[in-house]
Design a protein that fits this description.
74 residues, mainly alpha, elongated
Length: 74
Amino acid sequence: MSKATDQSQVRKGRIVALVIAFTAAFWVLGLFFGNKIGLSQRWLALIDLFALAGFVLALVMIWQIWRARQRDEG
């Protein structure tokens, strides 16, 4: 693998880490403050769905990084 490819994969890995961290923070804080202000269960479920979408996006990005590494190695 070239150095540019390695740096690209490292950058993508950092982006995935940020997506996971921000999704988790959004989820926890959204549910915490949603309960504090008395949001209905419908809104809290929407927060859950957004968090689920963020985690699925992170998994897809991880899979793409893994496939790129597989392709570069062989």
